[in-house]
Amino acid sequence: MEIIQKNIIIDGKERLVIYINYPSNYEFGLDFNTFKEKTKEISTKVKEYIKTNLKNFSDDSALLVLNGIVIGTLIFSQLKFEPYQNINQENKTEIVATLKNNDNENKTNKNNIIAKAEVDIEPLVTSEESATLESSAAAKVTEPIEQTTEITNSNSNSNSNKTNNTNSNQNNNRPSSNNSSNNNSGSNNVVNNTNSSKTISVKLASGTVITIGLEDYVIGVVGGEMPASFNSEALKSQAVAARTYALKKTANGATISATTADQVYKTDAELKKLWGNSFNTYYTKVKNAVLATSGEVMTYGGQYIDAVYFSTSNGMTEDAANVWGNSVPYLKPVSSSWDVGVSGFSQTKTIPMSVISEKLGVNLTSVSQITINSRTSGDRVNSVTIAGKNFTGVKVRSLLGLRSADFSVSQSGSSIVFTTKGYGHGVGMSQYGANGMANAGYNYKQILKHYYTGISIVKK
Question: What H or E segment, with its residue span, contains residue 273?
């Protein structure tokens, strides 16, 4: 793991920025315990770095950038470790006072500062690596869709000039993957009849918690998770999925994250940045799709479902049991042939065998040492033997940063070429598949009932 610091000019003021670059073999998303362990490891290393370098800092805070993504502000005085307590009290008071003054001055511009920082701060990884790492970083089960070039002014990590699919600034990913297979018998998941004025608490990337109307929140999620250029019926299906996810997550009054830890929610200012001159057109289109489904959610047995979704299938969706270990009756494999014609459906990634050996803990010298033993009901790799060691396809995808667990292999010199189909974990609704269905004449309810087996769509 690499940790470095830079002083960056943000809105005319110098700001300390600490970059944390974790390696691509960091595995967050397969189970909750791993997620906690990796998060704690990163937190510990950051604290150690600050502890060692605190005497060199002139501020009491730093902007944190995790693999090129701004995740918030860290205030050193809240860490409560010994070196901070030993700083001259007069100097420490002055530092804190200065920080508070700066915060007061910039309070109204805080979102603009963060948004500008996301563009101005140099990422630590390439866009391809960032997309891979983001999609596992917070163990999110609702993996982000890939924005197309029809979306303008995209994040600087996106290759927006390409005609094939390129990852947007979302990220990937969200609550721990095994949440998608939680027991749904808990009473707090039962759908209640509440009015349309319902509000939820949302924690922004800056750390600020806001209270927002549910439907306004869903507008920001649909805009953040799906290209507004998609068919309106696809946008409606995304709205119902996003609303269902949010209501289940907040059923006990919990705060939902606006980042890839849950679902990506974008403020109006962020949507303006994303859509540029198309803002008015796209915002109206998304808002109309959300309002057309106002209050509608998906249930199974009278309870909110885990409305997981992902970008692009390989032609089939996947059984949740093959990804997270637990069977869920409404998350079963179904055909999704609409994805096959999507640009970028099949892609290759070439990885040196030395890198594969390091990441998988094997001694790989030839493609002949790789044997795909079996595939899942969703036609993704179930079991594969690599240099005498057995792995699941999900594990290989995570460790090697592949777009999908549906892969085949070939050799090119001292490297292995992985050819993947689709993008994402494959469970639940395929977003590009939903758009394909909509273009073929299906409405949003037909789309949702296709991807989520046996569910009901009801008004909350």
Answer: helix 268-275
From CA 9, how far away is CA 199, in angstroms rounded?
36
What does the pLDDT look like over 258-308, one tens digit per residue?
987 888 999 999 999 999 999 999 999 999 999 999 999 999 999 999 999
And the tokens for 329? 């009756």
Q: Which residue type, as a one-letter code, is found at position 365?
A: T
- Could you report the per-residue pLDDT of 181-202, keeping only the tens digit for each? 333 333 345 554 434 578 999 9
Tokens of 76: 């050193």
According to DSSP, residue 145 is labeled P
Residue type at 75 in one-letter notation:
I
Closest by Cα among 205, 211, 200, 216 to 286: 216
pLDDT value at position 195? 40
What does the alpha-carbon distance between residue 135 and residue 118 come to, in Å, rounded to a whole number?
A: 18
Angstrom distance (rounded) from CA 147 to CA 154: 9
Q: How far is CA 208 from CA 171, 251, 352, 435, in A?
A: 19, 21, 43, 34
C-alpha count within 13 angstroms, C-beta hemisphere, residue 411: 11
pTM over cut 0.85: no
Residue-level pLDDT at 23: 65
CA gap 419, 345 in Å, rounded: 10
Which residue, chain included where needed, has tokens 């999900």?
Answer: 394
Coil, helix or strand at residue 382: strand
Q: How far apart are CA 386 and CA 354, in angstroms?
A: 13
Per domain, the residue ranges of the chain are 2-120, 147-312+427-459, 346-421
Q: Report the candidate in 4, 105, 23, 22 with the shortest Cα–Cα distance to residue 63.
A: 4
Phi, then psi, of 219 in degrees rounded to 5? -60, -45
- Predicted pLDDT of residue 69: 67
Residue 297 bridge partners (DSSP): 458
| Structural contact between residues 21 and 125, judged by C-beta atoms closer than 8 angstroms | yes
Separation CA 313–CA 339 (nearest Å): 6
Q: Which residues contact 245 (CB under 8 A, 6 or more apart)?
A: 142, 262, 263, 306, 307, 308
Q: How far apart are CA 24 and CA 432, in angstroms?
A: 26
